[in-house]
Write a structure and sequence with these properties.
This is Tryptophan--tRNA ligase, mitochondrial. The protein has about 375 residues and is mainly alpha-helical. Helices cover about 50% and strands about 5% of the residues.
Length: about 375
């Protein structure tokens, strides 16, 4: 087993495809509680998590992982970067134990393979830090059930369950409690580290807003005066558009789709990437143009190529206006293969080195616990459990 110290190969430039970041402040800039003798953060505390639910696909890579690498590259020496593999979140849907166990390590190998440096960033398994669960319970006790029932995730799962059973009406009483309280656990993931910034997509805005509301509720209830213990985390949004299914461009690229040709996985071979892109749904209109409404298939491929080249898809379309669909797809194949070539090779190497991965996970968990235990010491005292 090679030591962590010898893994300098992980300190490399981020992948070619990286979206530019923008910040959106949902309210005032967060600050710590002075009366609790916690010094003001000297830099940002950035937290993000990803579920261990199979090999990441192109959409996961462009929407999250490559942006983590960019954050790491741009971070100042005073910024803390915390990236978690959120196994407890995966349990809200049925899982096979052996597959979930394998996926935890595959995801860790993936995170390292794309360029996250475990010396610069804290990388760990969420389920290795019990502070998340303890804080979740405290937050559950101050979060109204009505608010959770209005969450988009809960309503979407309820709708999915009803559509899956045409013979009987399925109501919310048939869904598990984990799905209902999923956003509270997400809030605890973030606030256990008193994170100031969270990189999430537009579809997670509601969850982050709930995290802010829970932080505000805790501060009002347990923090004396007008001081603030938990910061109100700011959302970091990537302007890149979502990647759609190659076979059904009306829906997102997804690991759960029964059609394996609908997605491009990090582990796909050059031949598989080529086959999937060349068979991607397009249309019979002559020329290449960006029109998501009228030409969703071609527009999706333009989005992918634009992301790989770090260019706007509209500008990319202009360079292909007079080319055939076959010529265009050839270039998309080349760009995606170039994007995945390095990370794929690194992933295949790392996944064979379980000892190294276990050491990275152990070190990351220790660093994560050190931060969150400091938070929980104050939380227990404020709520009367210390």
């Amino acid at each position: 087993m090679l030591s962590v110290a010898r893994r300098d190969v992980l300190r490399r430039s981020p992948p070619l495809c990286v979206a530019r970041w923008t910040q959106r402040y949902l309210s005032t800039t967060p600050g710590p509680s002075e009366n609790l003798e916690l010094s003001k953060p000297r830099g940002r505390i950035i937290f993000s998590g990803i579920q261990p639910t199979g090999i990441p696909h192109l959409g996961n890579y462009l929407g999250a992982l490559s942006n983590w690498v960019q954050l790491q590259k741009e971070a100042t020496e005073n910024d803390k970067l915390i990236f978690s593999i959120v196994g407890w979140h995966a349990l809200t849907l049925p899982q096979k134990a052996k597959e979930l166990s394998a996926s935890r390590w595959e995801m860790l190998a993936t995170i390292l393979a794309v360029g996250i440096d475990p010396k610069r960033s804290i990388v760990f398994h969420q389920d290795d830090n019990q502070c998340h669960q303890e804080l979740t319970w405290i937050f559950n006790c101050i979060t109204p059930v009505g608010k959770l029932r209005r969450m988009t995730t809960w309503k979407a799962r309820l709708a999915d369950s009803r559509n899956a059973n045409s013979e009987a009406e399925i109501d919310e009483s048939m869904l598990n409690a984990g799905l209902l309280t999923y956003p509270v656990l997400q809030a605890a993931d973030i606030l256990a580290y008193r994170a100031t910034h969270v990189p999430v997509g537009e579809d997670q805005t509601q969850h982050l807003e709930l995290s802010r509301e829970i932080a505000q509720s805790f501060n009002r209830t347990f923090v004396p005066g007008k001081k603030r213990f938990f910061p109100l985390p700011t959302q970091l949004i990537t302007p890149s558009k979502r990647v759609l299914s190659l076979r059904d461009p009306s829906s997102k690229m997804s690991k759960s789709s029964p059609d394996v040709n609908s997605r491009i996985l990090l582990t796909d071979t050059p031949a598989q990437i080529s086959s999937k892109i060349r068979s991607a749904v397009t249309d019979s209109v002559k020329g290449i143009s960006y029109d998501p409404e009228q030409r969703p298939g071609i527009s999706n491929l333009l989005t992918i190529l634009g992301a790989c080249l770090n260019k706007d898809p509209v500008d990319v379309a202009a360079t292909y206006a007079n080319k055939t669909t076959a010529e265009f797809k050839n270039d998309v194949v080349d760009a995606v293969e170039e994007l995945f070539k390095g990370p794929r090779s690194e992933y295949e190497r790392l996944r064979q080195e379980r000892g190294f991965l276990e050491q990275v996970a152990k070190d990351g968990a220790e660093r994560a616990r050190a931060l969150s235990q400091e938070t929980m010491k104050h939380v227990r005292s404020m709520v009367g459990l210390y």
